[in-house]
Each structure stands twice: as structure tokens, then as C-alpha cells.
Amino acid sequence: MRKGADGFTASVAGVVIAGCSGCWVSAPGVAPVFPLLGRMRPFFLGTGSQFRPGPPPAFGSPAYLAAFAEVRHFSDTRTPEQDALANLWAKPAGYGVIQA
């Protein structure tokens, strides 16, 4: 079957990037969810990067700071209804946890 070799269940050992200002680092024992999903062989697209967006704004740039302020505003002023909606779409328990 095609799905057996599509790369969906591929795993990766995490690497911490030292000295990278603004890089996200997970908590100890937590792996990223589906870190190689972008390399998965698609079924209906020409390539996995066919509709890939452009790069994010540079860390600390005016565009980055404006986007950060927008996210922070929503975070600081969210309603109970918005919290409930976010919890509805939150990842299922157990994703991203490395089992020893």
C-alpha cells in the first residue's frame, strides 16, 4: 500500500540549537508533533511544498513585533468562549511526549 511508505510515522531525534536568539526549545522530554510531516509523500499534490508560504518575518523586525503584538493582544483579552474554542482544537493528550 502507498500509505505504508509515505513517511507519516517518521521520527527524529531532537537537537537544541545553541545561541539561536528567538528559537523555540521544547521542555525536556517533549518532542515536536510530526516533525517530518513536510517531507511526507503527498497523495494529491505535486510536491509537499506546493503551497508552502514564504518565510516568517525576521526575529525582532517591525513585522515580527507587529505580529507578536497582535497575538499577545488576543492572548491578553480572550473570552471564556475563545478559551473553550482553543481547547476544542488543542492537540490530543499524549502528542509530543517522548516515552522512555
Figure out the total of helices: 2
| Radius of gyration from the alpha-carbon trace, in angstroms | 17 Å
- Strand coverage percent: under 5%
The helix fraction, in percent, is 25-40%
Overall description:
With 100 residues, the chain is mainly alpha-helical. The protein folds into two domains: 1-52, no CATH class; 55-90, no CATH class. The chain contains two helices and no strands. It is extended and about 45 Å long. It starts with 61 loop residues before the first helix and ends in an 11-residue tail after the last helix. The model has no long low-confidence stretch (mean pLDDT 75).
List the helices and strands and how they pair.
Blueprint: H1 62-77, H2 80-89
Give a quick set of tags describing it.
100 residues, mainly alpha, 2 domains, 26% helix
Short description:
This protein is 26% helix and 0% strand. The chain contains 2 helices and no strands.
